[in-house]
């Protein structure tokens, strides 16, 4: 890759490596090895390990925000809620390292500059069909995030591997229960 390397390519390669090895295993030295460059050459594109991780988080947030927006477009209520939840779950299963990166704690400035606010806006858009007041809507955004990301994290970590019924059935019921809760909350 020497001579053709750009910051965007470095970040994409880092995201691919995070998906393969896990976000926690992403290091500049491992990435440089994969790119067949010296670590010092990598630092002409990123400022260090923290900068690399923040950039991968930014990529993951942008990718998943695009997927979420496409998934919920033209849908409302239960259908939109299911599309939102399924998109997060599918992204996590397809891109586990990127999914973990998107959960990275960012500074307020980093978060504001990222696609993170788009995630909240999309969730709020989905929740509009439930008729919640602004305070309840904030609680509901947190409830949706807690259920979706908590379930996905447990599933990725193998928490449901040795029990029946299959996790997919529990997922369906959890999202249905969330819809029922939000419907009752709004009335």
Verbal overview:
With 187 residues, the chain is mainly α. It has helices spanning 7-21, 28-35, 39-42, 49-72, 77-94, 96-102, 108-113, 116-127, 134-156, 167-186.
Helix and strand sequence: HHHHHHHHHH
Largest sheet: none
Structural class: mainly alpha
Number of helical elements: 10
Radius of gyration: 18 Å
Overall body shape: globular
Distance between the termini: 58 Å
**How much helical structure, as a percent, in the residues?**
over 70%
Unreliable segments (pLDDT under 50, ≥5 consecutive)? none
Strand content: under 5%
Record field, number of beta strands:
0
- Oligomer type: single chain
**Mean of pLDDT:** 96
Throw out a few tags for this protein.
187 residues, mainly alpha, 10 helices, 0% strand, globular
Detail the topology: elements first, then pairings.
Layout: H1 7-21, H2 28-35, H3 39-42, H4 49-72, H5 77-94, H6 96-102, H7 108-113, H8 116-127, H9 134-156, H10 167-186
Helix pairs in contact: 1-4, 1-6, 4-5, 4-6, 4-8, 5-6, 5-9, 8-9, 9-10
Quick overview:
The protein has ten helices and no strands. It has helices spanning 7-21, 28-35, 39-42, 49-72, 77-94, 96-102, 108-113, 116-127, 134-156, 167-186.
């Amino acid at each position: 890759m020497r001579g053709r390397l750009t910051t965007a390519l470095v970040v994409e390669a880092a995201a691919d490596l995070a998906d393969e090895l896990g976000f926690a295993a992403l290091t500049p030295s491992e990435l440089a090895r994969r790119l067949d460059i010296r670590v010092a050459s990598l630092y002409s594109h990123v400022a260090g390990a923290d900068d690399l991780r923040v950039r991968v988080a930014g990529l993951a947030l942008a990718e998943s925000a695009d997927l979420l927006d496409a998934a919920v477009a033209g849908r409302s209520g239960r259908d939109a809620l299911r599309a939102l939840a399924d998109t997060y779950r599918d992204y996590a299963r397809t891109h586990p390292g990127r999914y973990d990166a998107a959960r990275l704690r960012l500074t307020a400035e980093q978060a504001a500059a990222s696609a993170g606010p788009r995630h909240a806006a999309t969730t709020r858009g989905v929740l509009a069909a439930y008729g919640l007041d602004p305070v309840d809507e904030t609680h509901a955004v947190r409830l949706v995030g807690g259920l979706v990301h908590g379930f996905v994290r447990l599933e990725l970590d193998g928490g449901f591997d040795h029990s029946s019924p299959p996790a997919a059935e529990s997922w369906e019921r959890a999202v249905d229960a969330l819809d029922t809760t939000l419907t009752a909350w709004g009335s």
